[in-house]
Amino acid sequence: MNHVLVQDLRKSYRDKEAVRGVGFHVEAGEIFALLGPNGAGKTTTLEILEGFRQRDGGTVEVLGRDPGDRAHSGWLRRHVGLVLQDIAVEPYLTVRETIARNAGYYPAPRPVDEVVALTGLTEKSRTRVKDLSGGQKRRLDLALGIIGNPRLLFLDEPTTGFDPNARHGAWDVVRNLRDTGTSILLTTHYMDEAQALADRVAVIAAGRIVATGTPATIGGRDHALKRIRFTLPDGCSPDDLPVPVDVEADGTVTASVAEPTRVLHQLTGWALDRGLVLNGLTVEQPSLEDVYLGLTADHEAAPAPDTEKSPLSAAGHRSTR
Amino acid sequence: MSQATTTERPERPALTPPITAAAGTGRLRLTLHQIRYEQLSFWRNPQSVFFTFALPVMIIVIFGAVFGGNQPDSFFYGLSGMQYFTPTVAALSVFGACYGQLAVSLSIRRQNGILKRLHATPLPAWTYFAGLLAHALVVSAVEVVLITVVGYCYGVPLPAQWGATIASLTLGAASFCALGVGVSSLISDSEAASAVVQFIQFPLMFISGNYFPIHSALLDDVADALPMRPLNQALLGAFTGHGGVPWRQLAVLLAWGVVGTLVAVRRFRWDTRR
Fold first, then answer.
1. Contact (Cβ atoms closer than 8 angstroms) between residue A218 and residue A32
2. At a CB cut-off of 8 Å and minimum separation 6, what does A302 contact?
3. Calpha distance A105→A77 (Å, rounded)
4. Is B239 strand, coil or helix?
């Protein structure tokens, strides 16, 4: 069952088409990340799913119901949790009081202490909200998002402004939630976050989804050329090498290959035969960030084309949609 | 517990909303739940404790020191100074606790995104406002009791007509709450909220005679049509036992309450979007 289904979603503000035909789905029990630059339509899409905005066109289903239909809003509020971009918590209540207050709004909330512990706020549970750090307030926000024991959780840039430890902590919380059966739709512009958390990702640019897939395969990432890089040994010319390479000004050479095992063997064999060392030898996979930058760069420049180009066209593969 | 609910998750969502026979008591419990947290927030916030709560009590204590004599004075329409100020400062405190508090706190909560966030929970809007209004009534009641006790210490008799006193205070408080929510609906920027609220509050208090008696028929005519002076007059009558049921004043208060409610219903927003 799909917990979120979006088809041909459209939304315009006065003179700007913010969302122009977005489509994706979130399966029950998965973490789905919506990636995209600022202004790409992430938040608009999320706000339509959350029921804060009305769409201009397209189909939207959240837990099988239309969030744009007021008749469903009460039911959806009981079963969907959300964490918005801005921290919004009363300053003079303690952490525990704030969570306990919201627990009272739901028919079957999680136990307050469980949520306090899950979000790593046990030590701060008696602290007033105004005395928390920014990261702790975000975690409290997350606690409020999950206190109602939602089936589906929307997270809008959940770790913006976190220090690295806090981010890893928050990721653990999100994974934990997924493992206890909550589906999660998150937006982020951190590639490492998508890589670490998401079961599937979609990249949105200029109001359209330009690629969907797992973090490992999106945008043809798994088929893209791998780069073998090292420093050319002294006294050797690139022509001496057994494989064709590109040379940079500082003497670093790069061999781009679809499958590095054989070429690597050829290169190291060649070096060993001559008693040479390949300094700085690395094999690089294109990172999610490379893919993302490639996917979004096209659309930043010319936000119209319907054709979807793979950013790693050198690989000769399309994204696996 | 999480295991238990997890295993139930794959079941189909319940199609009927969980409205039970206990919904009525559930709502009452939820309203009390809201009042409790509104009270916690209020009493821990130094700004609300000082400006909303302590200031009127301080004013009546200071007025008592200044106008403490029990001689009737024509400046106070034949009442003693404290006989005049006890009801009018009580009215002022209700105005601050209801109108001022709601207008400012709702504007700030809207600006902070707290209202938007709250609106995304299953808490019914009706319950939220009921809790807020009841909270403001509780603060008002504590204020009025304290101010009446201070007046009593300065020799002002307790209200002569309890029924009229309570009716006037309740209607006044409800009406001021409605105006507070209404004004907060018209304020788009919380930075301006405090200024707008004060800008309305202070001149209104002055021309309505809360800080000193007004001896101008014209000003009285104007103030009689505004929300503050009718409560002053109704309370003065009820405290001193002159004048019976203040129908005309109550009607003006009711009218302002309706105006505030209409504005609130039409213009209230949970978020800052235009």
1. no
2. none
3. 10
4. helix
Q: What kind and span of H or E run contains A26?
A: strand A16-27
Q: How many other CB atoms are found less than 10 A from the CB of residue A23?
A: 15
Task: Name the 3-class secondary structure at B4.
Answer: helix
How many residues comprise chain B?
274
Q: What are A68-87's pLDDT values in tens digits? A: 998 999 999 999 999 988 88
Nearest-10 Cα torsion for A238, A244, A245, A247:
40
**pLDDT, position A259:** 84
Q: Which residues contact A45 (CB under 8 A, 6 or more apart)?
A: A6, A9, A11, A19, A22, A34, A204
The per-residue DSSP string of B139-177 comes to HHHHHHHHHHHHHHHTTPPPPS-HHHHHHHHHHHHHHHH
The answer, for B112 touching chain A at a CB cutoff of 8 Å, is: yes
Which of A86, A100, A106 has its CA nearest to residue A149? A106
Place of tokens 């390479």: A245
**What's the average model confidence in pLDDT over A102-131?**
93
3-state DSSP call for residue B2? helix
Q: How many Å apart are CA A288 and CA B11, to the nearest integer? A: 36
- What are the boundaries of each domain within chain B? 34-267
- Which ipTM value was assigned to this complex? 0.84
Does the structure show a pLDDT above 60 at A319? Answer: no
Calpha distance B186→B102 (Å, rounded)? 13
Ordered DSSP codes for A200-250: EEEEEETTEEEEEE-TTTGGGGGGSPEEEEEEPPTT--GGGSSS--EE-TT
Per-residue pLDDT of chain B (274 residues; tens, 9 = 90+): 444 444 444 444 444 444 444 566 788 999 999 999 999 999 999 999 999 999 999 999 999 998 877 788 888 888 888 999 999 999 999 999 999 999 999 999 999 899 999 999 999 999 999 999 999 999 999 999 999 999 999 989 999 999 999 999 999 999 999 999 999 999 888 788 888 888 999 999 999 999 989 999 999 999 999 999 999 999 999 998 876 778 899 999 999 999 999 999 999 999 886 5
Asked if A84 lies within 8 A of B30 by C-beta distance, the reply is no
Q: Which of B7, B28, B37 to mutate to test the interface with A (most CBs of A within 10 A)?
A: B37
Please tell me if residue A102 touches chain B, with a CB cutoff of 8 Å. yes
- Mutating which of B8, B9, B121, B127 best tests the A interface, going by the most A Cβ atoms within 10 A? B121
